[in-house]
Amino acid sequence: MKLDRIDIKILHELQKNGRITNVELADLVHLSPSPCLMRVKKLQSEGYIEGYSAQVNISKLGQTLTVFTEITLKNHRQVDFARFLAVVEKIDQVIECHLVSGGYDYLMKFVTAGIAEYQTIMERLTDMDIGIDKYFSFVVLKSPIVKTHMPLPSLFPR
């Protein structure tokens, strides 16, 4: 399926507000409701839309700690990366994990109940012998900008 500018706009609007009505969405993308709904269904069936979820205001629930962690592995064979990922993907507190270029291998984002929980997780990971050489932790003090949507129209102009 080749996406056009209207498909990109539909995806952009849906990622900003997944609960928008089809009539409202159609108006925003300058289509009538029926063709708009057909496009949304096609985007879903083709896998461009993977699902819908609620954005929870976690600060309303209580205090949390966000930590970005740089992790360097001892060895860099495919099996070393696979062993590491097999363990960390099972940790609920790992919100993001990125294989990156540069001075370390992975940049991970943890959200925990506090520093003690983060420390326990990292001690367990280093004790498991899953190939961690070293890690550096960066505790988030404040997040003045957090966006939940990508700038699709500027990333994919059609």
From TrEMBL:
<dbReference type="InterPro" id="IPR011008">
    <property type="entry name" value="Dimeric_a/b-barrel"/>
</dbReference>
<dbReference type="Pfam" id="PF01037">
    <property type="entry name" value="AsnC_trans_reg"/>
</dbReference>
<dbReference type="InterPro" id="IPR019888">
    <property type="entry name" value="Tscrpt_reg_AsnC-like"/>
</dbReference>
<dbReference type="InterPro" id="IPR036390">
    <property type="entry name" value="WH_DNA-bd_sf"/>
</dbReference>
<dbReference type="InterPro" id="IPR000485">
    <property type="entry name" value="AsnC-type_HTH_dom"/>
</dbReference>
<dbReference type="Pfam" id="PF13412">
    <property type="entry name" value="HTH_24"/>
</dbReference>
<dbReference type="InterPro" id="IPR011991">
    <property type="entry name" value="ArsR-like_HTH"/>
</dbReference>
<keyword id="KW-0238">DNA-binding</keyword>
<feature type="domain" description="HTH asnC-type">
    <location>
        <begin position="3"/>
        <end position="64"/>
    </location>
</feature>
<dbReference type="InterPro" id="IPR019887">
    <property type="entry name" value="Tscrpt_reg_AsnC/Lrp_C"/>
</dbReference>
<keyword id="KW-0804">Transcription</keyword>
<dbReference type="InterPro" id="IPR036388">
    <property type="entry name" value="WH-like_DNA-bd_sf"/>
</dbReference>
<protein>
    <submittedName>
        <fullName>Lrp/AsnC family transcriptional regulator</fullName>
    </submittedName>
</protein>
<keyword id="KW-0805">Transcription regulation</keyword>
